[in-house]
Write a structure and sequence with these properties.
The complex is a heterodimer of chains A (about 220) and B (about 80). Chain A has about 220 residues and is α/β, with parallel strands linked by helices. Helices cover about 25% and strands about 25% of the residues of chain A. Chain A starts with a strand and ends with a helix. The chains are: A alpha/beta (about 220), B alpha+beta (about 80).
Amino acid sequence: MKSAVLVFPGSNCDRDLAVALRDVTGTAPTMVWHGETELPEGVGLIAVPGGFSYGDYLRSGAMAARSPIMRAVVDAAGRGVPVLGVCNGFQILTEAGLLPGALMRNAGLNFVCRTVPLKVENAQTAFTSRYSAGEEIMVPVAHHDGNYSADAETLDRLEGEGRVAFRYGEPVNGSARNIAGIFNEAGNVLGLMPHPERVVDPAHGRTDGRRLFEGLLETVG
Amino acid sequence: MKARIFVTLKPGVLDPQGKAIQHALEGLGFADVEDVRQGKLIELEVADGTDDATLDAMCRQLLANTVIENYRIERL
Protein backbone atom coordinates (compact mmCIF):
# COMPACT_ATOMS: atom_id res chain seq x y z
CA MET A 1 0.00 0.00 0.00
CA LYS A 2 1.41 3.37 -1.04
CA SER A 3 0.79 5.93 1.65
CA ALA A 4 1.70 9.54 2.33
CA VAL A 5 2.22 11.29 5.65
CA LEU A 6 1.81 15.07 5.57
CA VAL A 7 4.33 17.17 7.48
CA PHE A 8 3.53 20.69 8.68
CA PRO A 9 5.75 23.04 10.66
CA GLY A 10 5.06 21.86 14.21
CA SER A 11 3.89 18.32 13.39
CA ASN A 12 5.41 15.96 15.95
CA CYS A 13 3.71 12.61 15.36
CA ASP A 14 4.56 12.35 11.66
CA ARG A 15 7.41 9.91 12.26
CA ASP A 16 5.34 7.81 14.68
CA LEU A 17 2.70 7.45 11.95
CA ALA A 18 5.37 6.66 9.36
CA VAL A 19 6.87 3.91 11.54
CA ALA A 20 3.43 2.41 12.19
CA LEU A 21 2.59 2.43 8.48
CA ARG A 22 5.97 0.99 7.52
CA ASP A 23 5.75 -1.79 10.10
CA VAL A 24 2.19 -2.79 9.27
CA THR A 25 2.21 -2.36 5.48
CA GLY A 26 5.84 -3.23 4.79
CA THR A 27 6.27 -0.05 2.75
CA ALA A 28 7.61 3.23 4.08
CA PRO A 29 5.22 6.11 3.38
CA THR A 30 6.25 9.20 1.44
CA MET A 31 6.63 12.21 3.72
CA VAL A 32 4.94 15.17 2.03
CA TRP A 33 5.83 18.72 3.09
CA HIS A 34 2.88 21.10 3.49
CA GLY A 35 4.18 23.44 0.80
CA GLU A 36 3.87 20.76 -1.89
CA THR A 37 0.92 20.97 -4.25
CA GLU A 38 0.74 17.34 -5.35
CA LEU A 39 0.54 13.98 -3.63
CA PRO A 40 2.57 10.98 -4.82
CA GLU A 41 1.00 9.25 -7.83
CA GLY A 42 -1.32 6.37 -6.91
CA VAL A 43 -1.32 7.04 -3.18
CA GLY A 44 -3.70 4.68 -1.33
CA LEU A 45 -3.80 6.40 2.04
CA ILE A 46 -3.15 9.95 3.22
CA ALA A 47 -2.29 10.33 6.90
CA VAL A 48 -2.48 13.71 8.63
CA PRO A 49 -0.40 13.53 11.80
CA GLY A 50 -0.71 14.91 15.30
CA GLY A 51 1.32 17.72 16.75
CA PHE A 52 0.98 21.46 16.96
CA SER A 53 1.04 22.66 13.38
CA TYR A 54 1.82 26.39 13.26
CA GLY A 55 1.91 26.39 17.06
CA ASP A 56 -1.91 26.12 17.12
CA TYR A 57 -1.95 29.81 16.11
CA LEU A 58 -5.40 31.32 15.49
CA ARG A 59 -7.14 27.95 16.07
CA SER A 60 -5.75 24.40 16.21
CA GLY A 61 -5.35 23.22 12.63
CA ALA A 62 -6.55 26.49 11.09
CA MET A 63 -3.33 27.46 9.32
CA ALA A 64 -2.43 23.93 8.23
CA ALA A 65 -5.89 23.48 6.70
CA ARG A 66 -5.14 26.36 4.31
CA SER A 67 -1.68 25.16 3.27
CA PRO A 68 -1.04 24.27 -0.39
CA ILE A 69 -1.01 20.46 0.05
CA MET A 70 -4.49 20.48 1.56
CA ARG A 71 -6.07 21.36 -1.79
CA ALA A 72 -4.64 18.10 -3.16
CA VAL A 73 -5.90 16.24 -0.07
CA VAL A 74 -9.44 17.62 -0.50
CA ASP A 75 -9.36 16.55 -4.18
CA ALA A 76 -8.09 13.07 -3.30
CA ALA A 77 -10.69 12.66 -0.55
CA GLY A 78 -13.35 13.58 -3.11
CA ARG A 79 -12.10 10.77 -5.35
CA GLY A 80 -12.47 8.31 -2.45
CA VAL A 81 -8.84 8.01 -1.31
CA PRO A 82 -8.82 7.12 2.41
CA VAL A 83 -7.67 9.99 4.64
CA LEU A 84 -6.74 9.43 8.30
CA GLY A 85 -6.38 12.42 10.62
CA VAL A 86 -5.01 11.82 14.12
CA CYS A 87 -5.26 14.46 16.88
CA ASN A 88 -4.02 17.68 15.25
CA GLY A 89 -4.77 15.84 11.98
CA PHE A 90 -8.42 15.58 13.07
CA GLN A 91 -8.44 19.30 13.88
CA ILE A 92 -6.96 20.05 10.45
CA LEU A 93 -9.58 17.92 8.67
CA THR A 94 -12.44 19.76 10.42
CA GLU A 95 -10.85 23.13 9.64
CA ALA A 96 -10.47 22.05 6.01
CA GLY A 97 -14.17 21.20 5.85
CA LEU A 98 -13.58 17.48 5.21
CA LEU A 99 -15.28 16.61 8.51
CA PRO A 100 -18.11 18.46 10.27
CA GLY A 101 -17.91 20.17 13.66
CA ALA A 102 -14.94 21.60 15.51
CA LEU A 103 -12.47 20.61 18.24
CA MET A 104 -12.61 23.08 21.10
CA ARG A 105 -10.54 23.57 24.24
CA ASN A 106 -10.96 20.62 26.66
CA ALA A 107 -13.83 21.26 29.04
CA GLY A 108 -11.57 20.98 32.10
CA LEU A 109 -8.97 23.27 30.45
CA ASN A 110 -6.27 20.68 31.17
CA PHE A 111 -4.03 19.07 28.62
CA VAL A 112 -5.16 15.43 28.80
CA CYS A 113 -2.38 12.87 28.37
CA ARG A 114 -3.32 9.32 29.28
CA THR A 115 -4.55 6.02 27.86
CA VAL A 116 -8.34 5.95 27.64
CA PRO A 117 -10.97 3.33 26.83
CA LEU A 118 -12.52 3.70 23.37
CA LYS A 119 -15.62 1.96 22.15
CA VAL A 120 -15.64 0.99 18.48
CA GLU A 121 -19.00 2.21 17.21
CA ASN A 122 -18.86 1.24 13.53
CA ALA A 123 -16.73 -1.73 12.49
CA GLN A 124 -17.88 -1.80 8.88
CA THR A 125 -15.41 0.64 7.37
CA ALA A 126 -11.98 0.44 5.78
CA PHE A 127 -10.52 1.84 9.01
CA THR A 128 -12.31 -0.36 11.52
CA SER A 129 -13.00 -3.68 9.74
CA ARG A 130 -10.55 -5.55 11.99
CA TYR A 131 -12.45 -4.51 15.11
CA SER A 132 -15.88 -5.64 16.33
CA ALA A 133 -18.72 -3.19 16.86
CA GLY A 134 -19.01 -2.42 20.57
CA GLU A 135 -15.48 -3.64 21.29
CA GLU A 136 -13.53 -1.61 23.83
CA ILE A 137 -9.90 -0.83 23.12
CA MET A 138 -7.32 1.23 25.03
CA VAL A 139 -5.61 4.03 23.12
CA PRO A 140 -3.59 7.03 24.35
CA VAL A 141 -4.75 10.61 23.98
CA ALA A 142 -2.57 13.71 24.31
CA HIS A 143 -4.37 16.93 23.52
CA HIS A 144 -5.55 20.30 24.74
CA ASP A 145 -8.25 20.87 22.12
CA GLY A 146 -10.17 17.63 21.79
CA ASN A 147 -13.61 18.73 22.90
CA TYR A 148 -15.72 17.78 19.88
CA SER A 149 -18.47 20.28 19.22
CA ALA A 150 -21.23 20.37 16.61
CA ASP A 151 -24.88 21.43 16.60
CA ALA A 152 -27.49 18.90 17.69
CA GLU A 153 -28.67 18.35 14.13
CA THR A 154 -25.15 17.45 12.96
CA LEU A 155 -24.63 15.15 15.95
CA ASP A 156 -27.94 13.37 15.26
CA ARG A 157 -26.99 12.96 11.61
CA LEU A 158 -23.55 11.54 12.52
CA GLU A 159 -25.16 9.04 14.88
CA GLY A 160 -27.97 8.14 12.49
CA GLU A 161 -25.61 7.54 9.59
CA GLY A 162 -23.13 5.40 11.55
CA ARG A 163 -20.50 8.08 11.26
CA VAL A 164 -19.37 7.99 14.88
CA ALA A 165 -16.25 5.84 14.62
CA PHE A 166 -15.11 5.79 18.25
CA ARG A 167 -16.57 6.99 21.52
CA TYR A 168 -14.73 7.54 24.80
CA GLY A 169 -15.63 4.97 27.45
CA GLU A 170 -15.23 7.63 30.15
CA PRO A 171 -15.34 11.44 30.27
CA VAL A 172 -12.09 12.75 28.75
CA ASN A 173 -12.44 16.27 27.40
CA GLY A 174 -16.10 17.27 27.38
CA SER A 175 -16.71 16.01 23.81
CA ALA A 176 -20.32 16.09 22.67
CA ARG A 177 -21.79 12.62 23.24
CA ASN A 178 -18.29 11.41 24.14
CA ILE A 179 -17.32 11.39 20.47
CA ALA A 180 -13.65 10.55 19.91
CA GLY A 181 -13.65 10.05 16.14
CA ILE A 182 -15.95 10.51 13.14
CA PHE A 183 -16.22 9.61 9.46
CA ASN A 184 -17.18 11.84 6.55
CA GLU A 185 -20.36 11.07 4.64
CA ALA A 186 -18.64 8.76 2.14
CA GLY A 187 -16.78 6.91 4.91
CA ASN A 188 -13.30 7.42 3.42
CA VAL A 189 -12.19 10.16 5.81
CA LEU A 190 -11.64 9.39 9.51
CA GLY A 191 -10.60 11.90 12.13
CA LEU A 192 -9.92 10.88 15.72
CA MET A 193 -8.25 12.46 18.73
CA PRO A 194 -6.65 9.27 20.19
CA HIS A 195 -3.34 8.05 18.75
CA PRO A 196 -3.62 4.54 17.27
CA GLU A 197 -0.04 4.84 15.94
CA ARG A 198 1.23 4.85 19.52
CA VAL A 199 -0.09 1.36 20.21
CA VAL A 200 1.03 -0.82 17.29
CA ASP A 201 4.13 -2.58 18.61
CA PRO A 202 4.34 -4.92 21.63
CA ALA A 203 7.13 -2.65 22.87
CA HIS A 204 4.52 0.13 23.20
CA GLY A 205 2.86 -1.94 25.90
CA ARG A 206 -0.32 -2.43 23.87
CA THR A 207 -1.16 -3.09 20.23
CA ASP A 208 -4.82 -1.95 20.19
CA GLY A 209 -4.19 0.50 17.35
CA ARG A 210 -2.48 -1.95 15.03
CA ARG A 211 -5.69 -3.37 13.57
CA LEU A 212 -6.69 0.05 12.25
CA PHE A 213 -3.63 0.00 9.96
CA GLU A 214 -4.07 -3.71 9.18
CA GLY A 215 -7.67 -3.08 8.13
CA LEU A 216 -6.57 -0.26 5.84
CA LEU A 217 -3.89 -2.47 4.30
CA GLU A 218 -6.47 -5.19 3.68
CA THR A 219 -9.00 -2.80 2.12
CA VAL A 220 -6.64 -0.61 0.13
CA GLY A 221 -4.30 -3.48 -0.79
CA MET B 1 -6.69 51.65 6.42
CA LYS B 2 -7.16 49.67 9.60
CA ALA B 3 -9.85 47.06 10.07
CA ARG B 4 -10.67 45.34 13.31
CA ILE B 5 -12.16 41.85 13.32
CA PHE B 6 -13.91 40.74 16.50
CA VAL B 7 -14.27 36.97 16.72
CA THR B 8 -16.59 35.61 19.38
CA LEU B 9 -17.96 32.20 20.22
CA LYS B 10 -21.53 31.66 19.10
CA PRO B 11 -24.13 31.78 21.85
CA GLY B 12 -24.59 28.33 23.34
CA VAL B 13 -21.04 27.19 22.56
CA LEU B 14 -19.39 26.30 25.85
CA ASP B 15 -16.45 28.57 26.68
CA PRO B 16 -14.35 26.89 29.39
CA GLN B 17 -11.75 29.67 29.26
CA GLY B 18 -14.44 32.28 29.89
CA LYS B 19 -15.66 30.24 32.85
CA ALA B 20 -12.15 30.03 34.29
CA ILE B 21 -11.73 33.81 33.94
CA GLN B 22 -15.07 34.31 35.70
CA HIS B 23 -13.95 32.09 38.58
CA ALA B 24 -10.65 33.99 38.82
CA LEU B 25 -12.52 37.30 38.97
CA GLU B 26 -14.72 35.88 41.71
CA GLY B 27 -11.57 34.82 43.54
CA LEU B 28 -10.41 38.45 43.42
CA GLY B 29 -13.62 39.51 45.09
CA PHE B 30 -15.58 40.66 42.01
CA ALA B 31 -18.75 38.88 42.96
CA ASP B 32 -21.03 40.61 40.43
CA VAL B 33 -19.68 38.93 37.28
CA GLU B 34 -22.51 36.87 35.84
CA ASP B 35 -20.80 35.49 32.75
CA VAL B 36 -17.53 35.80 30.82
CA ARG B 37 -17.00 34.98 27.15
CA GLN B 38 -13.53 35.17 25.69
CA GLY B 39 -12.98 36.16 22.06
CA LYS B 40 -10.29 37.49 19.76
CA LEU B 41 -9.51 40.87 18.29
CA ILE B 42 -7.57 40.80 15.03
CA GLU B 43 -6.26 44.09 13.63
CA LEU B 44 -5.57 44.28 9.93
CA GLU B 45 -3.72 46.97 8.03
CA VAL B 46 -5.22 46.81 4.54
CA ALA B 47 -5.06 48.92 1.40
CA ASP B 48 -7.40 51.91 1.37
CA GLY B 49 -10.54 51.02 -0.51
CA THR B 50 -10.53 47.34 0.46
CA ASP B 51 -14.19 46.50 0.16
CA ASP B 52 -16.50 44.82 2.65
CA ALA B 53 -16.81 41.70 0.54
CA THR B 54 -13.04 41.14 0.67
CA LEU B 55 -12.91 41.62 4.45
CA ASP B 56 -15.88 39.31 4.82
CA ALA B 57 -14.17 36.65 2.69
CA MET B 58 -11.06 36.86 4.91
CA CYS B 59 -13.23 36.18 7.94
CA ARG B 60 -15.12 33.30 6.40
CA GLN B 61 -12.08 31.62 4.87
CA LEU B 62 -9.65 31.92 7.75
CA LEU B 63 -10.10 34.38 10.58
CA ALA B 64 -13.25 32.82 12.05
CA ASN B 65 -14.47 29.25 12.13
CA THR B 66 -18.14 29.83 11.40
CA VAL B 67 -19.06 26.42 12.83
CA ILE B 68 -18.44 27.79 16.31
CA GLU B 69 -17.67 31.50 15.96
CA ASN B 70 -19.31 34.76 14.89
CA TYR B 71 -17.36 37.72 13.61
CA ARG B 72 -17.86 41.45 13.34
CA ILE B 73 -15.87 43.80 11.12
CA GLU B 74 -15.08 47.35 12.20
CA ARG B 75 -13.37 49.81 9.87
CA LEU B 76 -11.23 52.52 11.45
